[in-house]
């Protein structure tokens, strides 16, 4: 842990895209709003709290959202407006600290160990930020305050929407003990099931296991699990950290062959493309050129194949086509089976830089 305890705030706008739509169109207020294009290949960008009551969630296929909530009002995303509001919110953050790590248009970490405004505490700072957001944007945000990033992120979700929760250093172990292990970052459904098979269902259960046992079973990840169970996370807030890759992956209930993977690759490509679109519409407008296919075999070997095409993918369908084609570069017996597949985009560059490079290559081509 750092010698001087940090004071970290995680601010998360409430149902951001949907809330902007409801703010700007009063007829949508109080109604189930789904921000997404209609169509079989579309995914949900955001859902209002009224829609979430029906089980609608971000990154869900739009057709499934429509089945869950037939009365939902679908609104096509307008990232230009969302980006403008995000800049307003970022300006509010900047009044309090220079150490801001944006995670997306609607959430960020702030290190307020040193506070610019003279407010007495991180708690008061979070309250001031939320009040300014409400007054200046007519939107609400939730905040978590804690000594590190992972705890602050858990805390910001504790009293959503329009809430705030504080975890003080002396409260950490007692707060974490009853939580399901799935609340820890990096513990997905598969890992949660593996831990449950060992009798570990809560963070308190995990904390009781010797570190040597966890390391023997899970390698270095076992060490990380042990640290998280104790509330230890020394990752600093990193201002303007560039995105290196966006991806989506899935672990199957039953292992599949390469040829069986196509529909799963296409479904994951939709999710990855939605994340890429959010990055492209973010403050820096960054675009990706490299397609990555990740596979995990039935005996837990991880394989990756990547390709940087001459022209970058411009749709989820193109991304899926390239990812499916990358299967041909997997040199394993045809009967091999795979328990996980992932689709990613990497090689991010600023949109302006990408356009300049494209223009240069065009100028170099013979006329």
Automatic annotation (TrEMBL):
Originating species: Dyella halodurans
Cofactor mode of binding and number, as noted: Binds 2 magnesium ions per subunit.
UmuC domain: residues covered: 8-188
Amino-acid positions noted as binding Mg(2+) in the UniProt annotation, renumbered to this chain: 12, 106
Cofactor: Mg(2+)
Origin organism lineage: Bacteria, Pseudomonadati, Pseudomonadota, Gammaproteobacteria, Lysobacterales
Function: Poorly processive, error-prone DNA polymerase involved in untargeted mutagenesis. Copies undamaged DNA at stalled replication forks, which arise in vivo from mismatched or misaligned primer ends. These misaligned primers can be extended by PolIV. Exhibits no 3'-5' exonuclease (proofreading) activity. May be involved in translesional synthesis, in conjunction with the beta clamp from PolIII.
Residues with site note (Substrate discrimination): 17
Record keywords, A-Z: Cytoplasm, DNA damage, DNA repair, DNA replication, DNA-binding, DNA-directed DNA polymerase, Magnesium, Metal-binding, Mutator protein, Nucleotidyltransferase, Transferase
Coiled-coil boundaries: none
Assembly: Monomer.
Family according to the record: Belongs to the DNA polymerase type-Y family.
Protein name according to UniProt: DNA polymerase IV
EC number: 2.7.7.7
């Amino acid at each position: 842990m750092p010698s001087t305890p940090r004071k970290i705030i995680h601010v998360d706008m409430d149902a951001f895209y949907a809330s902007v739509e409801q703010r700007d169109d009063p007829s949508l207020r109080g109604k189930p709003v789904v921000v997404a294009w209609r169509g079989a290949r579309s995914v949900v960008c955001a859902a209002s709290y009224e829609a979430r009551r029906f089980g609608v969630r971000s990154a869900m296929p739009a057709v499934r959202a429509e089945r869950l909530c037939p009365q939902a009002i679908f609104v096509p995303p307008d990232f230009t407006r969302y980006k403008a509001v995000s800049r307003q919110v970022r300006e509010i953050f900047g009044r309090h600290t220079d150490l801001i790590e944006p995670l997306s248009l609607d959430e960020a970490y702030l290190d307020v160990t040193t506070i610019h405004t003279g407010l007495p505490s991180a708690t008061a700072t979070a309250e001031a930020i939320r009040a300014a957001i409400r007054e200046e944007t007519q939107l609400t945000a939730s905040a978590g305050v804690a000594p590190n990033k992972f705890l602050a992120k858990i805390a910001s979700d504790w009293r959503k929407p329009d809430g705030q929760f504080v975890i003080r250093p002396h409260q950490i172990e007692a707060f974490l003990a009853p939580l399901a292990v799935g609340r820890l970052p990096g513990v997905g459904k598969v890992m949660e099931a593996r831990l449950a098979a060992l009798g570990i269902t809560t963070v308190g259960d995990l904390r009781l296991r010797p570190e040597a046992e966890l390391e023997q079973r899970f390698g270095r990840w076992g060490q990380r699990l042990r640290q998280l169970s104790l509330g230890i996370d020394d990752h600093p807030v990193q201002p303007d950290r560039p995105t290196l890759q966006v991806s989506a992956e899935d672990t199957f209930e039953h292992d599949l062959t390469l040829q069986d993977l196509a529909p799963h690759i296409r479904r994951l490509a939709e999710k990855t493309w939605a994340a890429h679109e959010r990055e492209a519409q973010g403050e820096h407008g960054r675009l990706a050129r490299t397609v990555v296919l990740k596979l995990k075999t039935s005996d837990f070997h991880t394989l990756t194949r990547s390709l940087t095409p001459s022209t970058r993918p411009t749709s989820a369908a193109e991304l899926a086509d390239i990812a499916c084609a990358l299967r041909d570069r997997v040199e394993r017996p045809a009967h091999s089976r795979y328990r996980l597949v992932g689709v990613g985009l990497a090689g991010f560059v600023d949109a302006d830089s990408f356009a300049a490079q494209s223009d240069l290559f065009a100028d170099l081509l013979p006329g």
